[in-house]
Design a protein that fits this description.
The protein has about 350 residues and is an alpha/beta fold. The chain has 2 domains: about 200 residues, Rossmann fold (3-Layer(aba) Sandwich); about 100 residues, UDP-galactose 4-epimerase, domain 1 (Alpha-Beta Complex). Helix content is about 40%, strand content about 15%. Strands 3-2-1-4-5-6-10 form a 7-stranded parallel β-sheet, sandwiched between helices. A 3-stranded mixed β-sheet has the order 7-9-11. A two-stranded parallel ribbon has the order 8-12. The termini are far apart. Bound molecules: nicotinamide-adenine-dinucleotide (NAD) and thymidine-5'-diphosphate. Thymidine-5'-diphosphate binds next to helix 6 and strand 8.
């Protein structure tokens, strides 16, 4: 595939993927198509800006006419879709934009792939569509039981992919990954929020009892899985991408504080997130059989991430001072600090 449309390529995972592809495939051209919402950030792409193989279009994936124009103009072979509203807490405050982008927008991309006969669409999804998993791990054939407006919207997008494959034979592959971390992640998600708060000796707001479990996947391991599935995944199939690195939020927080040499007294227990899923866990044997595995050790990748946020205040300070500030106030102005913290 010589020409990729990377939707949502100015966000966290998408921008990491752009750099990954430009480095790995000397003859590949990439077009980033991004609405540049609060989460889209051209600072994430500034290292690609001078590369003649890279171009950027500001646009909404819900705008079918523009997507179609860009695909034709750049002779696109395949779409890799990262574009989404992605933050669970925001989806609780304002679900509408999630439904619009994550369901309707996915449908628009599928429609363009169908109409123009593109070679493939890789749709990036999440373990959250399976809902909370008490025991064991989710396999790709499990029922989808999403609990938040975010995960329900992502599940809707996944089901549109399935329907377009079954009904029209659209060559779409879905990946469902666990929680990612790494450089360039917007500081509303737990790891960058806690690192940047700790750097400024501010409290780390840990939801509820802190015993919710997430599986932590380094973003470059995720990029490798997406690249492999784009090229070698089977049409219509779903592939889980997990790191087998499950931690409670409390364990994760303590690990970050230890790495940074900061005291546990920074942890502040706050009221829980409504509908907070207790645990996600993926069985990734299907993608492992195709040769993928994580290549980054969790502790090394987390240390590298702490270092990146320490060295790149210019990147996150302005984000936390801007839109984030009013969002954060809306969240935490009403979120009760629990008495025992
Ligand atoms: P992000 O919020 O950092 O980036 C999303 C990007 O999409 C931004 O650049 C934003 O401007 C763009 N965008 C939003 N709405 C758009 C629209 N209507 N049209 C065009 N562009 C639009 O998200 P991320 O963490 O990089 O996640 C990327 C994808 O990976 C998402 O689909 C998400 O559901 C999925 N995912 C994320 C994680 C994770 O832990 N971050 C884990 C599994 C799956
Ligand atoms: P988050 O990074 O928002 O990802 P997701 O909700 O998609 O898993 O949150 C990861 C976990 O951390 C989740 O269990 C909620 C918790 N959390 C906190 O305890 N405090 C916070 O301030 C945030 C943002 C998340």
């Amino acid at each position: 595939m010589e020409s990729l449309l990377i939707t949502g390529g100015a966000g966290f995972i998408g921008s990491n993927f752009v750099h990954y592809v430009l480095e790995k495939y000397p003859s590949c051209r990439v077009v980033v198509y991004d609405k540049l919402t609060y989460a889209g950030n051209l600072d994430n792409l500034r290292d690609a800006a001078g590369d003649p193989r890279y171009s950027l279009v500001r646009g909404d994936i819900c705008d079918e006419t523009l997507v179609e124009e860009v695909v034709c103009e750049h002779e696109i072979d395949a779409i890799v879709n990262f574009a989404a509203e992605t933050h669970v807490d925001r989806s609780i405050l304002e679900p509408g934009s999630f439904i619009q982008t994550d369901v309707y927008g996915t449908h628009v991309l599928l429609e363009v792939v169908r109409k123009l006969g593109l070679q493939r669409m890789l749709h990036v999804s999440t373990d959250e569509v399976y809902g909370s998993v008490t025991d064991g791990s989710s396999v790709e054939t499990d029922n989808l039981l999403p609990n938040s407006p975010y995960s329900a919207s992502k599940a809707g997008g996944d089901l549109m992919c399935r329907a377009y494959h079954v009904t029209y034979g659209v060559p779409v592959v879905i990946t469902r990954a666990s929680n990612n971390f790494g450089p360039h992640q917007y500081p509303e998600k737990v790891i960058p929020l806690f690192i940047t708060n700790a750097l400024d000796d501010k409290p780390l707001p840990l939801y509820g009892d802190g015993l919710n479990v997430r599986d932590w996947l380094y973003v470059l391991d995720h990029c490798e899985a997406i690249d492999l599935m784009l090229r070698e995944g089977q049409d219509g199939e779903v592939y889980n991408v997990g790191a087998d690195r499950e931690l409670t939020n409390l364990e994760l927080t303590q690990t970050i504080l230890d790495m940074m040499g900061k005291p546990s007294s920074l942890i502040q227990h706050v009221e829980d997130r409504p509908g907070h899923d207790r645990r996600y866990s993926l069985d990734s044997s299907k993608i492992r059989k195709l040769g993928w595995r994580t290549r980054h050790r969790f502790e090394d990748a987390l240390e590298g991430t702490v270092r990146w946020y320490t060295d790149n205040r210019w990147w996150w300070e302005k984000l936390k001072a801007g839109d984030f500030e009013s969002y954060y106030h809306e969240q935490y102005g009403t979120r009760r600090v629990l008495a025992d913290s």
